[in-house]
Amino acid sequence: MNRKIFVSAKEVAHRAGVSRSAVSRTFTPGASVSEETRRRVVEAAEALGYHVNHLARGLMRNESGIVCLIVSELDTPYRASLIRALTRQLQSASKVAMLINTDRSDNSVDQALRQAISYRADASIILSGMPDKSITELCVKSGQRLVLINRDEQRDGALRINLHDREAARRAFIAFLRAGCRSFAFANSDVGTPSLMAREEGFRAAGREHGFEITIERYGPTRYQSGVVLAQRLLTREARPDAIFCANDLLACGLMDTARHQFRLTVPDDLCIIGFDDIEQSSWSSYNLTTFSQPVDRIAEEAVSWLAQPILSDENSCKLEAQLVWRGSVRGG
């Protein structure tokens, strides 16, 4: 079976009895073309199965419309929701998303990004703090525009989107304090991304401001199973905490299950827990987790709208607020 050859604009023009430029104007938003010509071109295009070659058209303007999404932990609930929001916004802006998975530690990420650059990707959006800074260097050297989400590096001509993580951590501490808690811990992973460390440092600073030392425990990836281990470490201490702020909801879910089923603690009477991200599972009745909601739709809107603007030489930054979602894992919530 022979591979079908794409129908050309020239063939559409011949069938419709119009010029090649008339076909181009018909499929160019805002271009001038008579209604009769438009009708004939559209009918011919539908009969032949013609589709506009946006890649070729874009390359003539030195644009491909391709935006790379450079992602780690893409199978986690929060990351999946952010990818969903970004791809929806990109599609609405007539852009094409190309996904690059950065979970592997070898040079596969570098190779994948170089491949994307060879397709003339216009921009890259880096969705986490995990990829090495050399990745951003490669993007910049290739002439791509760059959006950095939850990263701390300075980069001229790039947009940085971050949350007020320290302020959220302070609010978490105050919530625990008002619930009558007096022994505080922070459960973190070993990943050490800027956003996770900002939450840890903000929670520790809020504790010291009110005369309390915060117990810090870190372990493994930012996953459910790490929350299990963190619970075992924190809840076997001689001075067991009665309030734990978790770096994200997956850690909180693992920690909560272990606290209830292995240590027979009641949440929130014996132990108050706050998470971060507001993933779908946090609202399930089995968790009913008080948490901070990341504004994923707003993050996506800011990223894509900035890419549509003229290139600016200075670094641009956007700070967004995570909203506290009260549920039942904190007394009084």
TrEMBL record:
<dbReference type="InterPro" id="IPR046335">
    <property type="entry name" value="LacI/GalR-like_sensor"/>
</dbReference>
<dbReference type="InterPro" id="IPR028082">
    <property type="entry name" value="Peripla_BP_I"/>
</dbReference>
<dbReference type="GO" id="GO:0003700">
    <property type="term" value="F:DNA-binding transcription factor activity"/>
</dbReference>
<dbReference type="Pfam" id="PF00356">
    <property type="entry name" value="LacI"/>
</dbReference>
<dbReference type="GO" id="GO:0000976">
    <property type="term" value="F:transcription cis-regulatory region binding"/>
</dbReference>
<keyword id="KW-0678">Repressor</keyword>
<keyword id="KW-0805">Transcription regulation</keyword>
<dbReference type="InterPro" id="IPR010982">
    <property type="entry name" value="Lambda_DNA-bd_dom_sf"/>
</dbReference>
<keyword id="KW-0238">DNA-binding</keyword>
<keyword id="KW-0804">Transcription</keyword>
<protein>
    <submittedName>
        <fullName>LacI family DNA-binding transcriptional regulator</fullName>
    </submittedName>
</protein>
<dbReference type="Pfam" id="PF13377">
    <property type="entry name" value="Peripla_BP_3"/>
</dbReference>
<dbReference type="InterPro" id="IPR000843">
    <property type="entry name" value="HTH_LacI"/>
</dbReference>
<feature type="domain" description="HTH lacI-type">
    <location>
        <begin position="7"/>
        <end position="61"/>
    </location>
</feature>
